[in-house]
Amino acid sequence: MTSEPAQRPSSGQSPSPRGSEEELQATIDQIAAIVTESDYVVGMTGAGMSVESGIPPFRGADGLWTKYGTPRMDGYSDFKKDPTGWWNRRTNEKIDAHIVELRDALTNAEPHKGHYALAELEKQGSLQSLVTQNIDALDEKAGLQNLIEIHGNRTKLRCIECGDRVSLGDFVPLFAPDPCNQCGGVVKFDTVMFGEPIPDDVMAASRAEIDKADCVLAIGTSATVRPASGLLWIAEASGATIIEINPTETKLTPICEVSLRSTAGEALPLLLQTLAI
Ligand code: APR
User: Which of 100, 167, 173, 205 gives 20 to 30 Å between its CA and that of 33?
Assistant: First the structure.
């Protein structure tokens, strides 16, 4: 996974003006009309989707990378050089402050009403699938069925040879986990590291969903990290309607049919309510 090249320190962009209740509902109505007319709606969520569950985003005013700086891009090559050493260092050495802050937030996080609204939208057939960049497993917990976790899932381990995934359960490995019981390969957290290619299975599944989409709801993503973010432009190039739900303008905004300056926790329940009428 790579960020956009030459990442300037995040500008700490502040949210755009939200508008009145009437303006909010008018935009929700616009989105609802597009969703109703669409045959295949795919959600693409980013860290902003989980902010209202207490998990900090990475970029923007309250972002982890804004606070601690963007991490090095060689995490995965480090791991591959010496997996056992990586696991042991992880146990014995001081863990980066941003990892500690993110891990503490992840441990206590629960889905919020926006996650549950997405699951309901899927249940009622207004959303066909969700590709999330988040590793927090909150979408699964909220009941999303057709879910692709393109950056992995923090509650799983994955073999880097055959891709087999197993649940971590409550046990966090304090030493290198056993080799893959399918192929004997090296095992790591399922979460995709910087510099790690997106596993073929989730990349192919995500692309297949995007190729079917005639509408993409981009929710809480700065749309800056390829290849996940690239899928949004691929969708647009294929004629899909792109809708953005984000308090802040992003690089995606210029290609969006509708940009709703609201939060996931506010907008998605309103969208569900509007579509249920
Ligand atoms: N509701 C909706 N959007 C929000 C909210 C909210 N409550 N709060 C913040 N946002 C928006 C921000 O304005 C920002 O545009 O969410 C976006 C979060 O952007 P990033 O922090 O860059 O997160 P994301 O786009 O998911 O980053 C992609 O980068 O570091 C990697 O692996 C990490 O998966 C992540 C990837």
Answer: 205
